[in-house]
C-alpha cells in the first residue's frame, strides 16, 4: 500500500495577539494608532502594516534582481494579495483544531533538512534577520500551508492509469535526455464564472500584454500589472512532462525569444515567453523497499501516546519477543500493508507522503527509524533494500504519476486559492490599495461601507475600505 500525500489534522497559533483583547475601550488617538497598524482584516484575522511593508520590500528587491522596474503600489498590491491568501489558508488549517508540538516540529525540520541536503539551522537562517522562535513559527506556518494546499487540492486531481502508463512509456523510450524549457509567464486572471464583460476585458489585457512582450518588454514588469500572486514570472527550467499539455505544441515549435499564447485555463489566460531550451539528463529511478508499523492519532489518542506505543512495540522487537513483521501484523493500523508484515514493496520516494519519504531517505539499509510523523499518524520504518531500476516500465510509473500530478497541481492550487478569496470577508484599509485591486478578483465590488444582505449580515466575498 502506498502512503499517499494527505493531511487531515492541522492547526496553528491564534491569529490575534493578546494585546488586541486586553483593553475594553480605546481612546480616539489609540484607536487611530491601532487602525494605522492594520493593513487588512481577513475573516477573523488581521494583516499588520509592518508585515505588509516587509513583504513589499522583499518583492521590490526580487523584481530588481530580475531587472524589472515595478512601482511600489503594484508591489504592495501583490504583497497584500499574497498575505491575504496566506492568512486564509492558515485560518483553514487552524479550523481543523490540531497543532504541531515542538518535538514534532523538530522532527519535521530534521527530515526536511535531510531531504534537501542541508541543516535545520540553515533552514531557519533562510528566513532572514529574525529570532529563532520567529523563524520556527514561519517554518511551521509554511509547512502547514503546503500540507493544506496538497490535501485540499489533491482530491481535485484525477489521474487515470492510462495517463500514467502513457507517460511512463514516454519516459522510458526517451532514454537519457529530456527537453527542458526556460519559461516566463504572464497570467491574466479570470474569476471562476466570468461575465462577458470580464472575459472581454481579460482578452483585451492579454492582447496588450502579448504586444508588449513581443515588443521587448520585461516579463516581470508586464506580469506585475496583472498578477494575482507575488511570485516571479520566471518559472525557471521545466521538464517537458511538467508543462501543461495545452501549452506544449506552441512551445515545441517556438524558438528562444518567442512569445506564445494566450492559452485559456481554469484560472485565466496565460502568455509564455521562451527563454531557452536545453536537454537534461534523466536521473535513474531509485526505489526503496520499506516496511512500517503505523499508529494513528485521534482526539483521544495523542501524538505522545502513539510515540510511546511505537517505542514499546520496538522494545519487544529488539528483545526478540516478536519479529518486526509479526509486530506489524498485530499492531499496524495500515490494513493494506499490515497483512504483508508491513511490507510496502519497492517504491520511489515520490510515491510516499513527504514526512514518510523523508524518514525513509534518512535510513541506511537494515536500519530502523525513530518514530516518524506523516499525515496518517506515526510510523516506525525499516528500510529493507534500495535499488536503481533503469529498465522496467514499473520503475517509471511513480515518476510519471508524480510529474502528471505536479503538472496539474499549480493550476488546481491557483483555482482553489481564488475560491478561498471569493468566499472570504476581506476588509482592506488603504483606499488606494482597494482601487488597485488588492485582495479581490477582477470585478468584485468595493465600497466605503460593508456590503449587507437582506438579513443585515456582511456578504461573503465583500471587500470594503474605511
From TrEMBL:
Subcellular location as annotated: Periplasm
Matches recorded under SUPFAM superfamilies: FKBP-like (SSF54534), Triger factor/SurA peptide-binding domain-like (SSF109998)
Tagged with keyword Zinc: no
Domain called PpiC: residue spans: 178-276, 285-385
GO CC, any one term: outer membrane-bounded periplasmic space
Catalytic activity: [protein]-peptidylproline (omega=180) = [protein]-peptidylproline (omega=0)
GO molecular function, one term: peptidyl-prolyl cis-trans isomerase activity
Disordered: annotated span: 444-466
Alphabetical list of Pfam families matching this protein: Rotamase, SurA_N
Statement: the UniProt record of this protein carries the keyword Repeat: yes
Leader peptide range in chain numbering: 1-29
Primary localization: periplasm
Assigned EC number: 5.2.1.8
GO BP: any one term: Gram-negative-bacterium-type cell outer membrane assembly
Keyword annotations of the record: Chaperone, Isomerase, Periplasm, Repeat, Rotamase, Signal
Listed PANTHER family: CHAPERONE SURA
Entry comment, domain topic: The PPIase activity resides only in the second parvulin domain. The N-terminal region and the C-terminal tail are necessary and sufficient for the chaperone activity of SurA. The PPIase activity is dispensable for SurA to function as a chaperone. The N-terminal region and the C-terminal tail are also required for porin recognition.
Function: Chaperone involved in the correct folding and assembly of outer membrane proteins. Recognizes specific patterns of aromatic residues and the orientation of their side chains, which are found more frequently in integral outer membrane proteins. May act in both early periplasmic and late outer membrane-associated steps of protein maturation.
Name the record gives this protein: Chaperone SurA
Originating organism: Succinivibrio dextrinosolvens DSM 3072
Organism placement in taxonomy: Bacteria, Pseudomonadati, Pseudomonadota, Gammaproteobacteria, Aeromonadales
Amino acid at each position: 500500500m502506498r502512503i499517499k500525500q494527505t493531511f487531515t489534522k492541522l492547526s496553528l497559533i491564534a491569529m490575534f495577539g493578546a494585546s488586541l483583547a486586553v483593553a475594553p475601550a480605546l481612546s480616539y488617538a489609540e484607536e487611530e494608532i491601532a487602525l494605522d497598524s492594520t493593513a487588512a482584516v481577513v475573516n477573523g484575522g488581521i494583516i499588520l502594516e509592518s508585515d505588509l511593508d516587509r513583504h513589499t520590500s522583499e518583492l521590490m528587491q526580487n523584481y530588481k534582481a530580475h531587472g524589472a522596474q515595478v512601482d511600489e503600489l503594484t508591489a504592495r498590491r501583490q504583497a497584500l494579495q499574497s498575505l491575504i491568501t496566506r492568512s486564509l489558508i492558515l485560518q483553514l488549517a487552524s479550523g481543523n483544531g490540531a497543532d504541531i508540538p515542538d518535538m514534532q516540529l523538530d522532527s519535521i525540520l530534521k527530515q526536511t533538512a535531510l531531504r534537501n541536503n542541508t541543516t535545520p539551522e540553515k533552514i531557519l537562517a533562510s528566513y532572514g534577520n529574525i529570532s529563532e522562535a520567529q523563524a520556527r513559527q514561519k517554518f511551521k506556518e509554511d509547512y502547514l500551508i503546503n500540507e493544506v494546499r496538497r490535501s485540499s487540492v489533491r482530491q481535485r486531481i484525477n489521474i487515470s492509469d492510462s495517463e500514467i502508463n502513457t507517460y511512463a512509456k514516454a519516459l522510458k523510450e526517451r532514454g537519457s535526455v529530456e527537453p527542458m524549457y526556460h519559461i516566463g509567464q504572464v497570467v491574466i486572471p479570470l474569476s471562476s464564472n466570468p461575465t462577458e464583460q470580464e472575459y472581454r476585458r481579460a482578452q483585451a489585457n492579454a492582447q496588450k500584454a502579448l504586444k508588449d512582450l513581443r515588443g521587448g518588454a520585461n516579463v516581470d514588469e508586464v506580469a506585475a500589472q496583472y498578477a494575482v500572486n507575488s511570485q516571479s514570472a520566471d518559472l525557471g527550467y521545466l521538464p517537458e512532462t511538467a508543462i501543461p499539455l495545452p501549452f506544449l505544441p506552441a512551445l515545441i515549435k517556438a524558438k528562444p525569444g518567442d512569445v506564445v499564447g494566450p492559452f485559456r485555463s481554469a484560472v485565466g489566460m496565460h502568455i509564455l515567453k521562451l527563454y531557452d531550451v536545453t536537454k537534461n539528463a534523466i536521473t535513474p529511478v531509485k526505489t526503496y523497499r520499506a516496511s512500517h508499523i503505523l499508529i494513528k492519532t485521534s482526539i483521544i489518542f495523542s501524538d505522545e501516546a502513539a510515540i510511546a506505543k511505537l517505542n514499546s512495540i520496538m522494545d519487544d522487537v529488539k528483545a526478540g519477543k516478536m519479529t518486526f513483521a509479526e509486530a506489524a501484523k498485530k499492531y499496524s493500523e495500515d490494513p493494506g500493508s499490515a497483512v504483508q508484515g508491513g511490507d510496502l514493496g519497492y517504491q520511489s520516494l515520490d510515491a510516499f507522503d513527504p514526512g514518510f519519504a523523508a524518514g525513509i531517505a534518512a535510513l541506511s539499509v537494515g536500519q530502523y527509524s525513530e518514530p516518524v510523523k506523516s499525515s496518517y499518524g506515526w510510523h516506525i520504518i525499516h528500510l529493507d533494500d534500495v535499488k536503481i531500476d533503469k529498465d522496467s516500465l514499473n520503475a517509471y510509473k511513480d515518476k510519471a504519476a508524480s510529474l502528471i500530478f505536479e503538472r496539474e497541481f499549480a493550476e488546481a492550487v491557483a483555482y482553489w486559492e481564488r475560491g478561498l478569496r471569493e468566499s472570504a470577508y476581506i476588509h482592506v484599509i488603504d483606499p488606494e490599495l482597494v482601487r488597485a485591486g488588492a485582495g479581490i478578483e477582477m470585478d468584485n465590488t468595493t465600497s466605503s461601507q460593508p456590503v449587507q444582505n437582506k438579513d443585515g449580515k456582511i456578504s461573503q466575498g465583500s471587500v470594503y475600505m474605511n
